[in-house]
């Protein structure tokens, strides 16, 4: 999947989600061409809160390429959707003043 199809797929997924999930996500969802790693793990997406730039979700297209290079379109779309929903959970929890998902992530092997 090329980056343009990736962006189109992400936009289609976002359009199918309730608008309420995007409240105060003033930086929106941005697709970056790069790959990101955290130690030995690929980072597919990231929720960022910046005092100047606001609240933003970043999707790392390069990470998806490395992980899903030969996968079917369906597998790509499922991973994109899972990542968007995961990062939106970070956003919603942040608005609620909790961070349960980060606690869960720390327990993962």
TrEMBL record:
Pfam families referenced in this protein's UniProt entry, alphabetically: Zincin_1
CDD domains (UniProt xref): MMP_TTHA0227 (cd12953)
Name listed for the protein in its UniProt record: Metallopeptidase family protein
Source species of the chain: Aminobacterium colombiense (strain DSM 12261 / ALA-1)
